[in-house]
């Protein structure tokens, strides 16, 4: 069992981090990816913090409703539903919100600022928030952010954010029940316990 877990972590690193250009990530993003890896290294871990709380005190998770929606659309564009489930069904955004709840303030703030940048840039380009833009417009913006030759200072925040998000999305997906069973052909013994996600109705848009 232990060796199998190590193999899984190696696979996650190879699939997710290399593909997202992790070597070039800024320190704040690297710290989030490291934290996600630490979560992924404990298959029996139960989610803590805002993703598991009952919210009896009325508080929300790290991400606001609109931020949660933006990240959820982004993650689904990274791993869309095809003949297998996508990131939304795997509740990847709940995983990311959990990582943010455990992250250092600077890394958390940088990520949240990146979400805001995506919506602001979408407004500038398309006249609407990212979630309200067409799929073609959404993909056009992400193509700009993914271009290796994009060295435009004005896009730096978005480029760094999207690099970090790709790594977090892949890690969250492949350590979910759906990702382990459908994509990595795991027998189910190594995935996280079910992600409960935020209990607020507005954060259950993917259900």
Largest sheet data = none
Helix vs. strand class: mainly alpha
The percentage of residues in β strands lies in under 5%
What is the molecular shape?
Answer: globular
Radius of gyration: 16 Å
Give the averaged pLDDT, no decimals: 75
Helix content: 55-70%
Number of strands: 0
Order of helices and strands: HHHHHHHH
What is the end-to-end distance?
Answer: 32 Å
- Residue stretches low in confidence (pLDDT < 50, at least 5 long) are 1-9, 11-20, 44-59, 186-207
Tally of individual helices: 8
Characterization of this structure:
The protein is mainly alpha-helical and 207 residues long. The chain is 57% helix and 0% strand. The protein is globular and about 40 Å long. The two termini are 32 Å apart.
Q: What labels would you give this structure?
A:
207 residues, disordered C terminus, 0% strand, mainly alpha, 57% helix
Summarize, please:
It contains eight helices and no strands.
SSE blueprint and pairings:
Elements: H1 2-19, H2 27-40, H3 65-78, H4 92-102, H5 105-126, H6 135-146, H7 156-174, H8 177-183
């Amino acid at each position: 069992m232990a060796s199998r877990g190590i193999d899984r972590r190696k696979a996650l690193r190879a699939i997710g981090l290399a593909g997202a250009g992790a070597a070039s990530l800024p320190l704040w993003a690297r710290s989030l990816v490291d934290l996600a890896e630490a979560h992924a290294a404990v298959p029996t871990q139960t989610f803590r913090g805002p993703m598991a709380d009952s919210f009896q005190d009325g508080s929300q998770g790290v991400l606001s409703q609109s931020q949660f929606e933006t990240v959820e659309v982004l993650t689904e564009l990274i791993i869309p539903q095809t003949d297998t489930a996508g990131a939304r069904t795997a509740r990847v955004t709940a995983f990311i919100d959990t990582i943010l709840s455990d992250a250092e303030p600077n890394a958390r703030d940088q990520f949240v600022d990146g979400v805001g940048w995506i919506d602001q840039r979408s407004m500038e380009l398309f006249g609407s928030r990212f979630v309200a833009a067409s799929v073609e417009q959404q993909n056009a913006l992400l193509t700009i952010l993914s271009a290796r030759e994009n060295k435009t200072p004005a896009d730096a925040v978005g480029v760094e954010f999207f690099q970090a998000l790709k790594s977090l999305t892949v890690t969250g997906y492949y350590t979910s029940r759906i990702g382990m069973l459908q994509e990595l052909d795991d027998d189910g013994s190594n995935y996280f316990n079910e992600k409960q996600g935020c209990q607020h109705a507005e954060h259950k848009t993917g259900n």
